Amino acid sequence: MVVERAVDGTTAWSLLGYGGPAIGDAPPIAFERLSQAIADATGTRPCRVALPCPAEAVFSDAGELTGWQRRTTHVLDLPATAEALARAIHGNARTGSQYGPRRGVVMRDLQPDDHAPFYEMYLAQNERLHAAYTLPEDLFAELDHQLPDGTLMRLGAFLDGALIAASLFLFDRETMYHWVHVSDPVGKRMQASYCLLHHGLTQAMARGVRRVDMGSSHTEEVARPKERWGATPRTLGWYGR
After folding, report:
1. Each residue of 4-34: pLDDT tens digit?
2. Are residues 78 and 64 in the same domain?
3. Rounded CA gap, 170 and 212, in Å?
4. According to a count of CB atoms within 10 Å of the terminal CB, is the N or C end of the chain lower?
5. What's the mean pLDDT in 115-135?
6. Do 229 and 163 reside in the same domain of the chain?
């Protein structure tokens, strides 16, 4: 579970678990039970919930489906080898993942000293994109203490020692989530997003990860780059109030 505390005082909770609330052969549960469990833990009922399947596959009472919609996420099923991954990606994903390293871009794990430039980049990007909310700085700083070991991977792209882009990945058993990506103008010019994702996928394969959730896409323009990696659309259940 990841707690997202927005600076306007609201709190959002991301519950990770690709099995959803119904695991294996367990019978579907009532949404009220899940809602109450979140309320007991957080003091508030969920206003947005995403499930890795249509809601009717999880909840037992048809009356509880009010407010649920079907949305689409993009999921990449990882191959067994780096060679197979290289064959699966195409277009800008293939050339972009090689562009930065050929020009001196270096990928490595983010260190504590990288936190300040990362957050400055995050704020600048949110302002540029008119983001709906901004997470506080201490959330990112505290993630290593909040999450179990091995759950979070922070990767940075550097050019001449300066941070130009970064990606945060979350792990849950055999699934990796591409959670946050930030970039400055130099990072965009160096196509660092492709470099970081390729490096992240390679690391995920070494961990035995089988799939990567690249997130929902509200436009074809957003979906297209994910499909260049070989990701395919999957239906998810989305609840909002």
Report:
1. 444 455 444 444 443 333 333 444 455 666 6
2. no
3. 10
4. C
5. 89
6. yes
